[in-house]
Amino acid sequence: MQTNTQDPLPDTPLPPTPHSPIERPSPLRHVFFGTDGLRAGWSMLIFIALFAAFLFLANFITHKIHPPTHHTSPDHTIPFYFMFLNEAVPLFGVGIITWIMSKVERRPIGVYGLGGASKLPHFVAGLAWGIICLTPFILILWKAGFLVFDNRLLFGSDILRYGAQWLALFFAVGLLEEYFTRGYLQYTLTRGLAGLFRSAFKTLHSNVLAFWTSAVIFSTFFGLIHGSNPGESPIGLLTAGIASMMFCLVLWRTGSLWWAVGFHTTWDWGQSFLYGVADSGIMVQHHLLATHPVGKPLLSGGTTGPEGSVVILPIIILIIAVIVFTLPRTNAGYTRLLEPPVESQDGVIRGAGLE
């Protein structure tokens, strides 16, 4: 009698029978979820609803604690405390809601614009280029007779005090405007349009088309919302929209917003505090120099400030050249952030190209 010394064959699964239940996703799930998770339209709707609810609650609490008063001082400048609340509260809301949505979608929060490689070097470079590009613009207006420097308003320690105060404030301004319009919403709309374009056009360039389509949409929105600023002009609105596209170019090349945040910070700080000109029609208190525009608003910018002058157009070309030649595209580019996410063992969806 022989003994079988071979290992038994492993059990093989039986083929499904006609009576075996086959689990199929429900039609309702298909409405809300696609191949990369929660559909982009629903994601954006949830984000906007949460942000609107946050602003409503913050406004309600603020009015209960401190009833509304005049927003400007007798000289029609905006005080620091009002601008701080007007920027810091929405920024906090955008940050919290973006974090919530990153948990809902199981994506690292860095994919929404504040991740990528070389964050600090990009931010510092943006800070430097912001003031470097603004200064010749102001000098051109001055030399052409469209801007007059009247006198200096601050002396001694007040220069450092208010300079640092406004620099911190305009960092919040830059971060809010960049993160709100080119952060979560830009990423999510691009994600949704990329899937739509892949399905509709069968193209390998769906990510490129999706990114720049969403860039045009949000840049138009960015320009239009500046219309709520006092003293804004059509040229100023156009400039804001073009600047938004310019910052989208930064996002496209680097995969992050840090260069744009730095540039936005010192550009606004240089206008409002250092050179004492209007920024989108807004003048702030405690600025270093007193100035006033002279001549036709189309050339001087008028009450809008330098951004309302057509002289800014060659400056924008200069800034685009700076972006192209100092921020070459790397593997941290935005297209890599749109590659299909991979779910890790801890349940977090990891996007490609993230640092």
UniProtKB/TrEMBL annotation:
<feature type="transmembrane region" description="Helical">
    <location>
        <begin position="81"/>
        <end position="102"/>
    </location>
</feature>
<keyword id="KW-0378">Hydrolase</keyword>
<feature type="transmembrane region" description="Helical">
    <location>
        <begin position="123"/>
        <end position="142"/>
    </location>
</feature>
<keyword id="KW-0645">Protease</keyword>
<keyword id="KW-1133">Transmembrane helix</keyword>
<feature type="region of interest" description="Disordered">
    <location>
        <begin position="1"/>
        <end position="23"/>
    </location>
</feature>
<dbReference type="GO" id="GO:0004175">
    <property type="term" value="F:endopeptidase activity"/>
</dbReference>
<keyword id="KW-0472">Membrane</keyword>
<feature type="transmembrane region" description="Helical">
    <location>
        <begin position="42"/>
        <end position="61"/>
    </location>
</feature>
<dbReference type="InterPro" id="IPR003675">
    <property type="entry name" value="Rce1/LyrA-like_dom"/>
</dbReference>
<keyword id="KW-0812">Transmembrane</keyword>
<dbReference type="GO" id="GO:0080120">
    <property type="term" value="P:CAAX-box protein maturation"/>
</dbReference>
<feature type="transmembrane region" description="Helical">
    <location>
        <begin position="233"/>
        <end position="252"/>
    </location>
</feature>
<feature type="domain" description="CAAX prenyl protease 2/Lysostaphin resistance protein A-like">
    <location>
        <begin position="164"/>
        <end position="269"/>
    </location>
</feature>
<feature type="transmembrane region" description="Helical">
    <location>
        <begin position="162"/>
        <end position="181"/>
    </location>
</feature>
<dbReference type="GO" id="GO:0008237">
    <property type="term" value="F:metallopeptidase activity"/>
</dbReference>
<dbReference type="Pfam" id="PF02517">
    <property type="entry name" value="Rce1-like"/>
</dbReference>
<feature type="compositionally biased region" description="Pro residues">
    <location>
        <begin position="10"/>
        <end position="19"/>
    </location>
</feature>
<keyword id="KW-0482">Metalloprotease</keyword>
<feature type="transmembrane region" description="Helical">
    <location>
        <begin position="310"/>
        <end position="327"/>
    </location>
</feature>
<feature type="transmembrane region" description="Helical">
    <location>
        <begin position="208"/>
        <end position="227"/>
    </location>
</feature>
<protein>
    <submittedName>
        <fullName>CPBP family intramembrane metalloprotease</fullName>
        <ecNumber>3.4.-.-</ecNumber>
    </submittedName>
</protein>
<feature type="transmembrane region" description="Helical">
    <location>
        <begin position="273"/>
        <end position="290"/>
    </location>
</feature>
